[in-house]
Amino acid sequence: MKFLCVECDRQMQFEERQLPGDGTLAAAFRCPSCGRAVALLTNPMETQLVSSLGVKIGGTTLPPQPLETVRAMVATGKADAFDDGARPDAGPARATGVTWSLAAQERLARVPGFVRGMVKKIYVDYAKDRGIGEITPVMMDTARRELGLEEM
Amino acid sequence: MAEGDGATHLSPVSLHIRTYHQLTEPDRSALPEQIATQRRRVAERLAAVRRVVAVMSGKGGVGKSFVTAGLARALARRGRATGVLDADFNGPTAARLLEAREARVRVGEDAVVPAVGADGVRLISMDQLLEDGQPLGFRGPAADSFVWRGTLEAATLREFLADVAWGALDQLLVDLPPGMQRFAELIELVPHAPAVLTVTIPTVESRDAVRRAMRDAVERGAPLLGVVENMAGGPLTGSAAADLSAEFAVPVLARIPWHPGAEVWERLAERL
Question: Any idea of the CA torsion for B153, B159, B165, B170, to the nearest 10 degrees?
Fold first, then answer.
C-alpha cells in the first residue's frame, strides 16, 4: 500500500497513525513536495485484517514478541496459560529500571491474563527504548498508537 | 448533459498513475518486508529440524491425532528428537494424547518453550492455551469474521512454527485438521515442502476423500511417505490403504488395529 501525490508525481511519506475510536485505524501520509496530507481510514473489519496479518502500518522499532498475534487476538484463552516469569522484564519494577504509576498498574491489571505478561513487556521495552523512567496511562496510549497495538 | 443547464462541466483529466513497484522511495511501513521477515523467522527456527512431516487426511475422524501421538512417542522412544505441532486449532487434542495438557507455556526472550509430553515428545497445542470447554474465539468485529478468521489461523500456524523453541529435532510432526486448507498454508510457510504421511480408514468414502488430499499434495510438490490405515481389522470394511498405495505408488506403512499395542507403533516408527 503506497500513496502517490498525483499532482506532484511523488510518493507520499507515512507520517503518523492514530486510533480515533470506533475500530478505525487512521494512517496519515504527506507529500514531500507540496505538503498535502491524506489519511487512510480503515473500518473495523479492515483494521482487524491488518492485525491478523501480524504487520504494523508505519513499521515498528520493537522486536516481535513470541506468539504475539495469538496472545493479542485469542479471546478465549486461559488466564494462566503463559508463564512469563522467566523473562527479564517481567519481574518487579525495580529489576527493570522502569516504574509504573498507580494508574498504569490499575490499567495493566485490567488487561486479560492471557496477554498481560506480553503487554507488560512491550510497555517496558518501549519505555527503556526511549529512556522513560515511569510508565503512565498517557505513555501507554502513545505506545499503543506508535506501535500499532490496536488490539491491546 | 445539455449545455446551459447550469451544471459545471469538468473536462476529463488524464492522471499520471504509476505502478506500485515504480514507487521506490523508502516506505516506513514496508509491509512486504515485514511479511518476508516473518517467513525468514520460520526458516531460521526450522533450520535445526531435519524433517517436517505433515500428518494429513482429507477426511475427518480417521484418527490423525491418534496416529500422530502414537508415532511421535515411538520415535522418541527410539531416541529420535521429535516434536508435535497440533495444527488443529479448532479441535486440538494432541496435548491430551501426549499427556501435557496442564503444562503452562513458558515464555522466553524470543520464543516460547514447548511442553514436554509423554516419552519426551516436544509439543505445542491450542489445547494448552484455551479455557476448558471454550471454542477458539478471536477478538474483533463480530460481523464479517469470514474475511479475517482464516488469516488469523494462518498467522497462528506461522507463530507455532516460528515462535516455539523447537531446538534440534529429527522430525516435527504437524498434526493437520481435516481438509486441505491448513496444508496449503503450511507448504507456503516452510522453506521446503513437508513430507506427507497420509492417514485413512478402510472405507471407500475415506479412500475417495483421502485421494483428493494426496493428489493435492502431489500437485504442490510434497513427497508422499506412505499411507497408514487406522481402525483396521474391525467393523469397517474396504481396501482404502491398498487402493491408495497402488494409485500413488507409495507403501502402506502400517495397519493400526482398534486397540494397538506398543509394537504396532514401534514398527511404524521403524519404517520412517
Answer: 60
